[in-house]
Specification:
The complex is a heterodimer.
Chain A (H helix, E strand, L loop, with lengths): L1 H9 L13 H11 L10 H17 L4 H15 L10 H17 L14 E7 L5 H15 L4 E5 L7 H12 L3 E2 L7 H15 L3 E5 L8 H14 L3 E7 L6 H12 L3 E5 L9 H9 L3 E5 L7 E3 L2 H9 L4 H11 L2 H12 L5 H13 L3 H5 L15 H19 L3 H5 L6 H11 L3 H25 L4 H11 L4 H10 L1
Parallel strand pairs in A: 1-4, 1-5, 2-3, 2-4, 5-6, 6-7
Antiparallel strand pairs in A: 7-8
Helix pairs in contact in A: 1-15, 2-3, 3-4, 3-5, 4-5, 5-12, 6-7, 8-9, 10-11, 15-17, 17-19, 19-20
Chain B lengths: L30 H7 L9 H5 L5 E3 L5 H28 L6 H8 L7 H13 L4 H16 L8 H21 L2 H5 L7 E6 L6 H14 L4 E6 L6 H12 L3 E3 L6 H15 L3 E6 L7 H17 L6 E7 L5 H13 L3 E5 L9 H9 L3 E5 L7 E3 L2 H9 L1
Parallel strand pairs in B: 2-5, 2-6, 3-4, 3-5, 6-7, 7-8
Antiparallel strand pairs in B: 1-4, 8-9
Classes of the chains: A alpha/beta, B alpha/beta.
């Protein structure tokens, strides 16, 4: 619902569409290459060569390790050759489907839940290279475990090397309201672990989160130290933190850590950047361990369970519609949504509701991040949005909110009473121009019309999820698409 | 002390080998005394402090000045011959990556066939040099083979080496070293800003840089403008203390531009030679954080003409193709003048820097090769490429 608002709202701005710089490459290229290959019943070797060449380049550019790419391409080839092309698909689409399925399978359908035992405390070890995001992830994961798995964690940093590393965890612990074991005066990782474990037993923490020092996988002494910590603590999970921006070297570090320490899972960090994240595929392939979580922002709740479909879409360029839908669902207050739905049906959508919608949109994150989750060809042919443009849109959103805030509640209930003198007052109150107020009112009136049409056109079948999905994917009435074009 | 300012620290003196942080010059007689008279007292008599509404915390080096005077010349004398070797050693580890793979590609073959080229392609891509750059190199090799000007498989290595060196040297020439050409020697403070994505190694690099520049006899001040990450300024404070360099910091969450403003004032008041500015790690696709960087640049330029005189982008050697995107965005917003390639002591050798040098003509200025304070060396293209193929 919030999205519908967002989209209608955006329609006011030139270049309404999607900022799609990162993922369009492959699908576009494939379309070009495979355009001429229609109307054949079977995938021939020739189809495959053309398609797989492009896929290979796309994967390499997404930083999937070249050896992994090689094996992967061969697997796809042997699966695909001679396969019948499904009726609804072109040969190109068929190849993409095979690639997609194969990749999803490769990344595995595992659950993100950590497996705990009845022992107290259970330890979780966080390991990885310097700067991959271990300490931040430790904080995020502790919060996640408390919220989703009812754990009661104690945080411990055994990074006695990097300056202020332990302070960093202490500050994070404070920020998220989690206890951190200080262990003042202890400067040996193993001693720290023992002391913290004792503390857990005495105080009753059931989980000990051990944040280890960043180290190079070729640093023998430090890798040894990890082994000793693991030996001592017998952690239930040893999670390897991998930076999504890592290149070809990802296989080496991941393999070395796994071979020497025995990792049980992976946290993929910095996925809020624009890296394609091919490292995920490499790491999974060489360690065989599941990717459990994905770090998607600097805030401490920016940790999400891993869904293979999404990252495959990202690597291949199919957008991330699923992620978006789920995000919309979790953030939008269900009750409010229902109320709103009712109001929309009665065509009683007030400016007050509009403001609520805007704040819902804001809760989803920056426009940039919302837009980057939509698939590339959704608004095909429309100009791409630059970061500056989305920033501009965000400014507009803020202004709109300010204007509505400056209205009286009667005005919000019934916009028709807003006469010129009221407009002047509202403009003054919100620090905007009368023009802006006029624009907003016009936009609001138009939005009401669109909503009415939506209600009549489709009813409320399928509830929120179906609605948003249909709206997003453009499945549904063709009428709407036509209208969008007219609007521009 | 003034005669030591003949050239600024970053300049490559002609004829010197690639380490040129003044390490080749003999310590002048009586220099320790000169160090000793560098007064820490200046801290107390700083006029700015009184004027500021929010007092910046100036952390004075707690190390007694005398010990610095003793240790610094020693470090310079002892380590100078080792840098080249250590850099080479760090880079050479890539041989497992690149050189030996090239070796495998040409071994036992007299002629160059499609398979050789394939192997070659994989070797280059495997070093993160990037699909585009790799294809271009391979294409050139293919042409030469077709023209039969390249017959022997052994020549391949030489050709690829020359390609890489060309790219790196061209980048250095086309952009030039900003400070050599455009910044007068008497600019003070010389403002050096360090930017990059999260976890690239900015803070560590600054700690090392401060130590090197100070060891060259310059008066350095550090600005801890990473007010976002937990305990970032504490981390920097420890580095500053080790290097015996004062640091301006404020509490977490302060506007970084405000910290920078205070630091610039302080640097001017103290007549510091160099101000090194640490910034918070930021992903290059976050418009608001990039805007914050822009603001910091504006503040710097307003306080000191032409500042920041140099902006270094720190890139982790393990970074893949996203490095290009990082460099592109940071250049757009922060007018980056050079790269620092960190964590070269791992197995990754920062091939992405070659791709960046090629596409954006950005020279690599320094390399991080370890966790100790003196593990930062000036980058030299020839040594780097030689190292890859040694």
């Amino acid at each position: 619902m919030a999205l519908a608002t967002l989209m209608v709202h955006q329609a006011e701005y030139p270049g309404f569409g999607i900022c799609w710089n990162m993922f369009d490459a492959l699908s576009d290229k494939l379309k070009k290459v495979l355009k001429d290959l229609r109307g054949e019943g079977r995938l021939t070797a020739e189809h495959l060569d053309l398609a797989l060449r492009e896929i290979r380049i796309a994967l390499l550019e997404a930083d999937v390790n070249f050896k992994v790419v090689k094996d992967f391409i061969e697997r796809v080839r042997s699966k695909a050759v001679g396969q019948e092309v499904m009726q609804q698909l072109s040969p190109g689409q068929q190849v993409v489907k095979i690639v997609y399925d194969e990749m999803v399978e490769m990344l595995g359908g595992t659950s993100s839940r950590l497996i705990f035992t009845s022992r107290r405390p259970n330890s979780v070890m966080i390991v990885g290279l310097q700067g991959s995001g271990k300490t931040t992830s430790t904080g995020k994961l502790s919060m996640w475990l408390q919220k989703n798995q009812d754990r009661n964690p104690l945080l411990l940093s055994v990074d006695v090397y990097r300056p202020a590393a332990r302070d960093q965890l202490a500050v994070i612990g404070k920020a998220i309201g989690m206890p951190v074991f200080e262990g003042q005066g202890i400067n040996d990782p193993i001693e720290l672990c023992r002391a913290a474990r004792l503390h857990c037993e005495q105080v009753g923490f059931d989980t000990l989160m051990i944040d280890t020092a960043g180290r190079l996988h070729i640093d023998d002494a430090l890798m040894d130290e990890l082994q000793r910590i693991k030996q001592e603590m017998q952690p239930v999970e040893t999670l390897f933190v991998a930076d999504a921006m890592t290149g070809q070297d990802a296989v080496k570090s991941a393999k070395e850590f796994h071979d020497r320490i025995g990792t049980t899972g992976v946290i993929l960090t910095k996925m809020d950047g624009d890296a394609r994240g091919g490292a995920a595929l490499s790491v999974k392939e060489v360690t065989g361990q599941p990717i459990k979580f994905v770090g998607v922002g600097e805030k401490y709740d920016a940790l999400e369970p891993f869904y293979p479909e999404r990252i495959v879409s990202r690597i291949l360029g199919m957008g991330d519609v699923l992620s978006l839908i789920e995000k919309v669902q979790s953030e939008v207050d269900e009750k409010k949504a229902l109320e709103l739905q009712e109001k929309m049906e009665r065509n009683a959508f007030t400016l007050e509701d509009y403001r609520d919608q805007l704040s819902q949109v804001k809760k989803l994150g920056s426009l940039d991040s919302i837009l980057s989750m939509l698939p590339g060809d959704m608004f095909k042919g429309m100009p791409k949005l630059t970061p500056e443009m989305t920033a501009q849109m965000e400014v507009e959103l803020k202004r709109t909110e300010a204007i509505i805030n400056s209205m009286t509640s009667t005005e919000r209930e019934d916009h028709l009473i807003i006469n010129p003198s009221r407009r002047r007052r509202i403009a003054m109150g919100s620090g905007t121009k009368i023009n802006d107020v006029n624009k907003l009112l016009k936009q609001y009136a138009e939005m009401k019309i669109v909503m009415k049409q939506m209600m009549e056109g489709e009813g409320m079948m399928g509830g929120l999820r179906g609605k948003v999905a249909r709206k997003l994917t453009g499945i549904g009435s063709k009428r709407k698409k036509v209208k969008k074009k007219k609007r521009r | 002390m003034s005669n030591r300012f003949m050239g600024l620290f970053w300049k490559r003196k002609s004829g010197s080998d690639f380490i040129s942080l003044g390490l080749n010059t003999e310590p002048e007689p009586g220099q320790p005394e000169q160090f000793a008279e560098q007064p820490v007292k200046a801290l107390e008599s700083e006029p700015v402090k009184a004027a500021e509404p929010v007092l910046p915390v100036v952390v004075a080096p707690s190390q007694p000045v005398e010990t610095i005077a003793e240790t610094v010349p020693e470090v310079r004398a002892a380590d100078e011959p080792n840098f080249m070797a250590r850099f080479r050693k760090a880079v050479t580890a890539t041989r497992e990556n690149l050189s030996s793979r090239l070796e495998d590609a040409v071994k036992g073959r007299k002629t160059i066939d499609a398979e050789t080229l394939n192997d070659l392609e994989e070797a280059l891509i495997g070093a993160d040099i990037g699909v585009q750059t790799t294809f271009e190199i391979i294409e050139d090799v293919r042409r030469q083979v077709d023209r039969q000007s390249l017959k022997d498989a052994d020549e391949l290595k030489g050709i690829i080496k020359r390609h890489l060196l060309d790219i790196l040297e061209k980048a250095e020439k086309s952009r030039g070293i900003a400070s050599e050409t455009s910044v007068a020697d008497d600019v003070r403070p010389y403002v050096l800003m360090v930017v990059g994505v999260n976890g690239a190694g900015k803070t560590t690099t600054i700690g090392k840089l401060a130590q090197r520049i100070k060891a060259d006899g310059y008066d350095v001040l550090i600005c801890a403008a990473d007010t976002f990450r937990a305990a970032a300024s504490d981390q920097l404070a420890i580095w500053a203390e080790r290097a015996g360099v004062p640091l301006i910091q404020q509490k977490q969450g302060t506007d970084p531009a405000a910290v920078l403003f205070d630091s610039l004032k302080a640097a001017k008041a103290r007549n510091s030679d160099v101000l090194i500015v640490d910034t918070a790690g930021r992903l290059h696709n976050k418009a608001n954080l990039m805007a914050e960087l822009e603001k910091m640049r504006r503040v710097a330029g307003r306080e000191v003409a032409g500042a920041p005189h140099e902006t270094l982008l720190v890139i982790d050697a393990v970074t893949g193709q996203n490095g290009l995107s990082q460099a592109r965005e940071f250049m757009k917003v922060a007018d980056v003048t050079g790269l620092v390639l960190t964590k070269l002591d791992g197995t990754a050798k920062g091939g992405i820097a070659v791709a960046i040098a090629k596409e954006l003509a950005l020279p690599i200025r320094y390399c991080g090769i370890g966790e100790k304070a003196d593990d930062l060396v000036v980058f030299d293209p020839a040594t780097y490429v030689d190292g890859l193929f040694a």
